[in-house]
Design brief:
Blueprint: H1 3-50, H2 65-73, H3 76-86, E1 90-93, E2 103-106, H4 109-118, H5 126-137, H6 146-160, H7 163-191, E3 195-196, H8 197-214, H9 229-243, H10 249-258, H11 261-290, H12 299-304, H13 316-347, H14 349-364, H15 381-385, H16 388-400, E4 406-410, E5 415-416, E6 422-423, E7 428-432, H17 433-436, H18 440-443, E8 456-457, E9 460-461, H19 482-499, E10 500-504, E11 525-530, H20 533-537
Parallel strand pairs: 2-7
Antiparallel strand pairs: 1-2, 3-11, 4-7, 5-6, 8-9, 10-11
């Protein structure tokens, strides 16, 4: 081999070595860069967890959203309570970059009063809330603002306080409890099978609100518990609506446009809800056409007879929105409050005993009690009003498990909360009603305990400030049906307790569902045990 060949061979070997060397160095550099990035990410994550804002990590681009999603899968209300407790009642939730999922969250009674009363005009429901719930609730009173809200509230208030409306509520409750509820419970008792008490109570309040608000009887509560498509669709629609609050608005709007995923489910559910209400409105119009002079005391008829600013009757769509909102307000709130109440009662038998004592003491004052024999005991309005301990127990259940666990407002003009939190124009404000019931700063060290006595003064029920106990809202939006709700819950609860002991199935999972209202995720399966005559008539109960 000549020298030229040697030189060429050597040169080729050097080139190959250089090539391999360069490739190796590039690989090493890439590996180093990868390790640096991994280390930087690790440090970043570690830093996030070590230096949490309000104890919650803020992720690059995603903000607090990952923590919120995890909380939704477990118990978002407890998560909010924990964060608020760490921050003395108020914190700023930071959503993903370039989204509008940012809000001030508060459970401070001073801020709540500022929000609901002192600066009420500055904190409407706002466009964000209406965007998320508008497909379901439309312009109904639950999410309406300004003149629309005022008009609906004024009309409903006049009707709620009329003698005819009150009489109708008393009569409808007696009919529902004694001709439907108790026979259904008796059927399950005789068959010795568990019953979903939450479902039964929702059926009762649905029939009740339809009877007194719309003048129709859907007969949802009856033997065999018939399948009512409306009920399932209504619950599904509320569940999807609340999930819109934690999604970027462009995402769920695109899903709605494409009719996919949860938005497809929502569309189908709302169609079922609207069909039910449209049928009710159509039927009422036919009845009024045939006999327009017939006296009626239901809300739907009252709104049908009103005129808008142009002197024309309200549209069917507007009437439908009103109906759907009143169903939400009248069906879910009372039924869910009673479901949580009976669950708490199962864990606190001494409270149940005191309620039974109060009921039988009141019955003992009846001169005719011993003469009534086997005639069913129907509680009279005055007796229901005097059930102070029962009302205290129901209020305590609502404190711990409010039917509406959180509510949302929007800031019109820049403001400052009493605790010093700055509120910028357009900011969303969430007040966490569930968390308020578990704040030691509001209710004391026993805030997580079920103690009806905290509501009693010298044996009489005493309410708390609406800005400390916000289950019925407060300020100008204070619940119009608060008195009716208490009467309804007391009458139903007393009637059940007087006849049965309710026992939740052993190890049955009870947890809240993420929705506009606080459903029990799996319902409330219970067994019924009938009280014997010694428990309901024996003089041992009837003591001063």
């Amino acid at each position: 081999m000549n020298s030229g060949n040697h030189t060429a061979l050597f040169s080729g070997q050097v080139t190959a070595v250089h090539f391999i060397s360069n490739q190796f160095l590039s690989a090493i550099q890439a590996l180093e860069l990868f390790l640096v990035l991994v280390f930087a990410l690790f440090v970043s994550i570690h830093s996030l967890w070590q230096k949490k804002t309000y104890g919650v990590p803020i992720w690059p681009f995603l903000g607090m959203l990952p923590s919120l999603i995890i909380a939704i899968r477990s118990n978002i209300y407890e998560w909010l309570t924990t964060v608020l407790d760490r921050q003395n009642g108020t914190f700023i939730f930071k959503g993903p970059w370039l989204t509008n999922i940012n809000a001030t969250v508060t459970a401070d009674p001073r801020n709540i009063e500022h929000l609901l009363k002192t600066k009420f005009p500055n904190f409407p429901k706002g466009g964000y809330f209406k965007n998320a719930t508008g497909d379901l609730l439309g312009d109904g009173i639950f999410n309406a603002d300004d003149d629309t809200w005022r008009q609906q509230r004024k009309t409903a208030s006049l009707e709620f306080h009329s003698a005819g409306f009150r009489q109708m509520t008393f009569e409808s409750l007696i009919e529902l409890v004694h001709s439907r509820l108790l026979p259904v419970l008796e059927d399950f008792f005789e068959r010795r099978v568990p019953i979903d008490l939450q479902d039964v109570l929702l059926r009762l309040t649905f029939d009740n609100v339809c009877m007194i608000a719309f003048g129709v009887d859907p007969s949802c509560l009856g033997q065999g518990l018939p399948v009512i498509p409306f009920a399932r669709s209504f619950e599904d629609a509320m569940e999807v609506s609340i999930m819109r609050f934690v999604k970027p608005i462009n995402i769920w709007k695109l899903m709605r446009f494409l009719n996919v995923g949860s938005e497809r489910k929502l569309k189908r559910s709302i169609a079922t809800v609207h069909k039910f209400v449209d049928d009710v409105i159509c039927k009422r119009k036919e009845e009024l056409t045939l006999d327009s002079k017939k006296p009626r005391s239901d809300l739907l008829t009252v709104f049908m007879r009103l005129k808008d600013d142009n002197g024309k009757p309200f549209s069917d769509k507007y009437l439908r929105d009103i109906c759907v909102s009143f169903i939400l307000a009248g069906r879910d709130t009372s039924a869910l409050a009673m479901a949580w109440f009976f669950w708490l009662l199962d864990q606190n038998p001494t409270v149940e005993e005191r309620i039974m004592l109060e009921i039988c003491s009141l019955l003992g004052e009846r001169d005719s009690l011993k003469k009534e024999g086997n005639i069913p005991v129907i509680f009279q309005p005055e007796e229901v009003k005097r059930m102070d301990y029962l009302q205290a127990a129901l209020s305590e259940a609502l404190r711990l498990y409010p039917s509406v666990p959180v509510d949302l407002k929007e800031v019109v003009e820049e403001d400052v909360f009493p605790d010093g939190t700055v509120l910028k124009k357009g900011m969303k404000v969430i007040y966490a009603i569930y968390a308020m019931g578990r704040m030691e700063s509001i209710w004391g060290k026993d805030c997580k305990e079920f103690k009806p006595d905290r509501w009693l003064r010298d044996g009489r029920y005493m309410s708390e400030s609406a800005y400390k106990f916000t289950a019925f809202n407060g300020g100008p939006r204070l619940c119009l049906g608060k008195d009716f709700a208490y009467y309804q819950m007391k009458f139903v609860a007393a009637s059940i307790i007087y006849h049965y002991r309710i026992r939740v199935l052993k190890n049955f999972p009870v947890e809240p569902k993420v929705s506009l209202t606080m459903y029990m995720k799996y319902g409330l399966k219970v067994m019924l045990y009938k009280r014997d005559e010694s428990e309901t008539r024996d003089s041992q109960w009837i003591t001063p």
